[in-house]
Amino acid sequence: MNSNVTIFDHPLIQHKLSILRDKNTSSKDFRELVSEIAMLMCYEVTRDLPLEEVEIETPICKTTVKHLAGKKLAIIPILRAGLGMVDGIRSLIPSARIGHIGLYRDETTLKPVEYYCKLPKDIADRDVIVVDPMLATGGSGIDAVSQIKLRHPKSIKFVCIIAAPEGIEAFSKAHPDVSVYCAALDEKLNDNGYIIPGLGDAGDRIFGTK
Ligand code: PRP
Ligand code: URA
Q: What single-letter DSSP state applies at residue 59?
């Protein structure tokens, strides 16, 4: 296993993921679960954020406390499905800026097609968290990160919910400097590029388009 990959085995994440995978889970529950899992993952993904000491005054006395240094983060969902992860993360990091990268997989070639890119102006001063529930062939994640790298952010992390071994391998080869976080590393891809066992089409399940 690539050392840049972290799989979260926290029981709450695994429990929520088990419901997410179930084909009988409604679109409403699916959306809520994606958001909750993203929030729980964010708690660990941000573990290395730097702190600085500041002096404040409690109602009793002056004291030194720690708060986040800089706080310059950007969350960049890969449209559409990545949008489902934004609110959960933003509830923990309300000051984060949000960028958007629009990519869809061509159903025949499975190659990503880019249709939108709007990133925060000051992205060069920010640590970036790219979010997309699925890392399948890896094509979309690889392209999104390549686009973001052109704007030279301070750092990039990639957070997905389910990854396929094929996607992890391709992504780590293309972007060895980018840490990947996921809730599950599944078995493999099927002939249509879907993750087995996976959860189906994340975008369709979030937005109810199928
Ligand atoms: C899904 C998913 C990823 C991509 C993963 O998006 O949300 O972006 O597929 O596949 P890959 O690793 O093989 O590139 P999709 O292309 O279905 O678009 P959507 O989110 O708009 O439905
Ligand atoms: N995109 C999805 O939404 N699901 C998969 O299994 C693969 C790509």
A: S
Q: Among the residues of the chain, which ranges form H helices? A: 11-21, 27-45, 83-92, 139-149, 165-174, 202-207
Ligand 1 pocket, Cβ-based, cut-off 6 angstroms: 78-81, 103-105, 110, 112, 132-141, 167, 193, 201-203
Residue nearest ligand 2's atom 3 by CA: 201
DSSP code of residue 106: -
DSSP 8-class letter at 123: G
Entry pTM: 0.95
pLDDT tens-digit profile of 77-118? 999 999 999 999 999 999 999 999 999 888 889 899 999 999
pLDDT single digits (tens) 19-47: 999 999 999 999 999 999 999 999 999 99
Residue 124 CB coordination number (10 Å)? 11
Asked about 109 being catalytic, the answer comes back as yes
For 140-153, the pLDDT digits (tens) are 999 999 999 999 99
| Pocket residues: Cβ below 6 A from ligand 2 | 81, 134, 136, 193-195, 198, 201-203
> Among candidates 9, 41, 12, which has minimal Cα distance to 129?
41
Could you give the CA distance from residue 141 to residue 43 in angstroms, rounded to a whole number?
A: 21
Q: How far is CA 31 from the centre of its chain?
A: 15
